[in-house]
Amino acid sequence: MAKEKRDIEINSRADTLPLMGPEVRPWPVTPPPTPEWVMDNVYAKRKAQEFGKFLEDNLRLDFVFDKPEALQGLRVMCNGIWQISRMFAASLLGEQGAEVVHIEPPGGDPLRQLTPFGREEYMLMDNVAGEPCGLDFLHEFRNAKSITLNLETEDGRAIYKKMATVFDVIIEAWPPGYMDSVGLGYRHLSKLNPRLIYCWVGERGQWGPMKDEVSKHGQWILDPFSAAADSWIHNTGFPQDQCPRGKGGDPMRSGAWLPSYVCGEQAAVNIQAALYWRDGVSGEGQFIEVTAAEALMDILDFDIGWYGFNRSIKARTGAWDPNLNQYEWNPCKDGYMMIGGQTDRLWYRIGMCIERELPEFGRLIHEDPLLKEMGARNSLQGLIKTYSITTKWLRDINRIEAEQKLMEYEIAAGPVLYIDEVAEFPHFKYRPWVNTIETQFYGTVMYSESCAAFQHRTPARVKDIGRPLGHDNGEVYQKFLGIGPLKLRELKAKGVI
Amino acid sequence: MDEKELQKLKVCDIEDLPGPKSKEELEEMKMPFEEYCRKAFDPGNEFLKPEALKGIRWMSTTMYIFTPHSVANLAELGAECIKVEMPRMGDPMRQTSPFNEAYLYPLHDTRPMTGTGYGFLNANVNEYYITLDYHVPESKRVFYDLVKQSDGLTECYRHGTFDRWKQGYRYLMEMNPRFIYVWGGGFGYGPKMFGGSYDILGQAHAGLASITGTHKDMGGHATKCTNWCIDWYSGTQITCAIMAALNYRLKTGLGTMIEFSQVQAATRMCGYTAPLYGRFGIVRQRWGNWDTQLCVHGIIMTGKSDFPDRPNPQEKFEARYVMLSAFQDADFKDLCDIIRSRTSSAAIRPTRRGSAGRPRWKSIKPSRPGPRTRPAPKW
Q1: Would you give the end-to-end CA distance of chain A in angstroms?
Q2: CB–CB of B244 and A436 under 8 A?
Q3: Owning domain of residue A262
Q4: What share of chain A is helix, strand, coil (3-state, %, to 5)?
Q5: Is A153 a member of any domain?
Q6: CATH number at residue A150
Q7: pLDDT digit string (tens) for B121-137?
Q8: Measured distance CA(A491)–CA(A154) in Å, rounded
Q9: How much is the ipTM here?
Q10: Structural domain includes residue A66
Q11: How far is B34 from chain A (nearest CA, A)?
């Protein structure tokens, strides 16, 4: 509730901006449940107080900074523009304690300029130079430093070479062969630093017939080209018999930059495996290439095997799943409700819940001989019948009612939530998963917490988010190359930094 | 001149000079980049190279996709992984197959009636398969012996189940302090600790579904990203956390417990969604195949299929979408020029004043407001 009443005049969208934000409307709007409440109402119900207390005592996010970092001492250089996958890989390492330095050209990464629908008012200004920064870039720029370096100059290349000798990991995302053509590829740098782990990330690869190429004007191939290349987009979305073409019944890209994130995490896994091999076995670094297209193909369920089996090509099935029943979301009164439960145990529990209000569910679904066997329920007719009758129940109730009813039977069910609901969902803010942090340069920022933050010994952590372009030039060049302020000014004048 | 005097004449060692030292090295440096990549990665000859995680042994008491994948990633990197399934039940994924159609031929007796479902195929590669009913007292000793010989375990039971069975982290860390214990599930400790989870629940609950698909105003619905993507994606993130823990153990010899919630992982990939809401209170919507930050950059439908004669309807009717990207000025101008040159004479022909530029098959008369007897013409 507002503390006092104010008179405000709104003439344009600009007038509404200062009415929001973390100072005006702090998050969370309603406080999360207390640990005592959770103990009495959740853990106690299953007689798991002792175990619950053990988890709370050892895994809570509040204790993160009392514990060591797993990758402390690892130096990571992240060099490139455009690809968010390189930034996600770097933040996964940075959250685990690696020292991450982002190298951008003096003009900055164009990702800094991206903002939804080109709305500059949704970018955040830093408190040093007043430069606006797009939120996607900001959100992925974690625990890192920002330096600038012009690799088009001789001096810049010499500096980069020197840096490569004192770093453990380089994550690179330039078009194929660019770094190699200027004499800074893996084959050059590994001569200077044989322990170097060098990882290139991109959409479809840096070699081969469909490798990443820039257009004749220099525009990059970006997310979701990789998802377009391997049937990922082809089988996301509603089929045209559920929704007409052009109105949702089309192949659909993910709303998030999913391919880039899948690529970035795969890069982080491989870098750490290479690190393990280097430190534990061989003492040698290596060259890694991770592409979003291949990372997606690796997780394409069985689609490749199924095609080999009988030339089946997976089609779009909207919010349903051809492999599991029940396992879908369907419309309800105020949105969509997801229900899942495949094994007999869960299947009949869902039925018992719905039957209370819709007795015909039992007669039509449970007593249907074709739906008695687990595998047989997945036939298309089985899905259509089950979901038609389930939706008949759902259409008259709200998400929260459906959730409460299904939870009584301990069914894995949940509403489709929007971000405002996500941020206020009791469990999410209890841990919290969506969290706020007071950053050094951009004020208080809401962000998604690191997924590896809940650990006994070495939890991942977010210490800072975002950085003005080139803010750490002085510190980083002094620390690693001994370049002092005067020399730095000179390099800046020459356009090297 | 003897050897000693030769040494005196030498200015420096060739090893100290920059540049390639041998003919092979010279060739490697002169090779075109693509050729170098092909040589460095050497596809098809992976088995000639060492495995990064050789010697790591991992136990997998997992089901479905999410947690098994975290182990399969390790197995692909060379770890020895043991999948422990319940006798006679097995992983439910063995019973899962698209539209109940494709089952692998039963070559052994685990599922003699139908064979193994395709759902199981890809998430448990390179592993040993054993069965053990680890929750009965008789098997405890076997289970503990395995723990003492292994580096880690991934499990996916409801939180507290393993603890109740005396094989949770609290017990295992006493037996093997180097042990890395991973719990993967939906929510983790907190008010919804005992909530079950699936890939689709992660997509729904974490906000990913709300930003994927076509906006309701354009006739669309919240859309599921395909292929259990959150299961796979968060499984790899578990592997990422495991790798960090392994690297930490290399230094200190200490194991840990990782509690990983897949619902959280789905929120993590939503990019600017959280900061935009937190600062400006704006709730991100779904915008179909548009990219909200780049224009033109999206998927559009073309008039014809690439394969109109193929029998498979997926090829015959669906091979007609292209990914189009021209967001930088010069590319955008080129795109406009192409569209202009293609459309000026064919589809859009000026017919009479007032309707210049409209497609011939469309009426441009606005529908009249007020009561009507006939249904409005469909546009």
Answers
A1: 49
A2: no
A3: 75-298+438-493
A4: 45, 15, 45
A5: yes
A6: 3.40.50.10540
A7: 889 999 999 999 999 99
A8: 11
A9: 0.94
A10: no
A11: 5
